[in-house]
Write a structure and sequence with these properties.
Elements lengths: L2 E4 L6 H14 L3 H14 L11 E6 L3 E6 L5 H15 L3 H9 L16 H10 L6 H16 L15 H7 L3 H24 L4 H4 L1 H4 L4 E3 L7 E3 L5 E4 L3 H11 L7 E5 L5 H8 L4 E6 L2 H9 L8 E5 L2 H11 L2 E6 L6 H14 E9 L8 H17 L2 E9 L22 E9 L8 H7 L8
Parallel strand pairs: 7-8, 7-10, 8-9, 10-11
Antiparallel strand pairs: 1-2, 2-3, 4-5, 5-6, 11-13, 12-13
Helix pairs in contact: 1-2, 1-8, 3-4, 3-5, 5-6, 5-7, 6-8, 7-8, 8-16, 11-12, 14-15, 16-17
Bound molecules: S-adenosylmethionine.
The site of S-adenosylmethionine has 25 residues, from strand 6, helix 12, strand 8 and helix 14.
Length: about 450
């Protein structure tokens, strides 16, 4: 155990809470939701039938927790917290600061009935302002959000309807407030990623369970194929075919030329489109024994220009980089996390030619638009560190509901379910003034403290 995250009062409580929410968001499996519910009791003695259990120590990497004490909020503290939430909805920054600094209001407090926290209420305060006062209200709300997020409020706190403040800002069309929350998310993620790296979390260990699972191929509808793991998680589905097609066009822009490296065969969709473009060299790295057997059964080991490299990319990338660099690299592994992807970026720069193109299937946080937007920005910033500039393409996808039948959960659940960001990263020779990254880097930073 290397990191200890405690929700017990401390000056860095807000950071811990933010990190914890991040941890929940990262893995949407039920055990984290369970954990989340328990943690909610810290803030919300009313939420569970076990109201006294609400002070927890939380350990990440590996995730573990223990209950260290039992306490309940005093009526005085409750009253201060309720006044604090009222001040938030009234967008009264002076009162907010006074209540947190001088009277000990808890910046993470949530309304018992609705689960709305201070940031939700600030967003709501701007939303309900009369039309003629809207602009001024948004400015005030923006100031309140910045101060609160710098002083303990949790950027991705969820209300009872599982909406974060950013989700609400987006629903109400409050773009400035949405952007402020997203920036806070990016900062929190950067911090978390930094801590993860410090703890040297083993990226390799994480997808071990998947690689040992038994896979099945199904046909949910006529002509559609799905690859499932032994828990019925969709490893790959046919609805992604248009993304794969476009990716292949980007990766092999001139048919008959170039070399391409693809990580993760899955259903072989991207590889089939890549083959249609006849690259001179086409290397596929695949780690799952069932998938490798299927590839061979389909004759992929005999296709022109194709080389199958059996093993985890973590184990074979170094060796590949020592041979010949690639004109393009694609990444779409399964059972991996953001840290693995970032680790892959590190490898990818060594695998790419100086004009090389890197692309990956961007499904990070794809069950919630807010988290998706946070990851989109985060990836751009991280890749800039590796000398890569970013282009996003938005694709409109036909995603029939029937295709999800038999899968454990939808890993794609954005409101615009048919629109998917497709990523293209190119080495930065000179950053164009129109690039998405230039705009991001030049964007006015959001103050985190008043
Ligand atoms: C989402 S599928 C890829 C789908 C593919 N893009 C397509 O068009 O069908 C992910 C694939 O990555 C493989 N994979 C998972 N972890 C891997 C790793 N560490 N190294 C190499 N392959 C891995 C899985 O076995 C699976 O076949």
């Amino acid at each position: 155990m290397q990191a200890r995250l405690s929700l017990v009062d401390s000056s860095i409580k807000s950071m811990h809470q933010t990190l914890f929410y991040e941890a929940i968001h990262r893995d949407r499996h039920s055990r984290y939701f369970y954990l989340w519910t328990l943690v909610s009791t810290r803030k919300f003695p009313y939420w569970l039938p076990r109201p006294k259990v609400h002070s927890l120590k939380i350990y990440l990497f590996p995730l573990k927790m223990e209950i260290i004490e039992e306490e309940s909020m005093s009526p005085d503290q409750l009253a201060v917290n309720q006044r604090f939430l009222e001040a938030c909805r009234a967008l009264d920054i002076e009162q907010i600061q006074k209540l947190v600094r001088d009277e000990g209001a808890d910046a993470w407090f949530q309304e018992p009935e609705t689960g709305k926290g201070p940031l939700h209420l600030v967003v709501e305060g701007a939303h309900v302002a009369e039309a003629e006062e809207k602009d001024a209200a948004v400015e005030k709300a923006d100031e309140c959000l910045s101060w609160l997020m710098g002083n303990g409020a949790v950027w991705n706190q969820m209300d009872r309807e599982y909406r974060t403040p950013a989700c609400r800002a987006r629903e109400y069309g409050l773009a400035k407030l949405y952007a402020n929350c997203i920036d806070a998310g990016v900062r929190a993620e950067l911090l978390l990623a930094h801590l993860n790296r410090k703890q040297q979390t083993s990226a390799g260990a994480r997808n071990e369970a998947y690689l040992n699972s038994k896979l099945t191929w199904t046909e949910p509808t006529d002509g559609a194929k799905t690859l499932l793991d032994d828990e019925n998680n969709g490893v790959m589905m046919s609805w992604e075919k248009d993304i794969m097609k476009r990716s292949a066009e980007v990766l092999v822009p001139t048919p008959g030329e170039g070399s391409v490296l693809n990580i993760g065969f899955g259903l072989g969709i991207v590889d089939t489109y890549l083959q249609e473009r006849r690259p001179k060299r086409h290397v596929i790295v695949e780690a799952h024994p069932d998938v490798i057997a299927e590839m061979k059964a389909q004759g992929w080991d005999k296709k022109p220009g194709v080389e199958i490299v059996e093993g985890r990319w973590q184990d074979v990338a170094g060796q590949l980089a020592e041979q010949e660099v690639f004109d393009s690299v694609y990444y779409d592994a399964f059972g991996e996390y953001y840290e693995d992807l970032r680790e892959f970026f590190d490898e990818a720069v060594g695998l790419l030619s100086p004009d090389g193109i890197l692309s990956f299937f961007h499904g990070l946080g794809a069950d919630n638009q807010t988290f998706y937007d946070v990851y989109t920005k985060l990836v751009m910033l991280e890749l800039y560190d590796f000398g890569l500039d970013t282009e996003w393409e938005e694709l409109y996808i036909d995603m029939p509901d029937e295709e999800w039948e038999g899968t454990k959960r939808r890993y794609w659940a954005l409101e615009t379910a048919s629109s998917v960001s497709h990523s293209i990263f190119k080495f930065v020779h000179q950053l164009s003034k129109d690039s998405a990254l230039t705009k991001l880097l030049l964007a006015k930073p959001t103050p985190s403290e008043a």
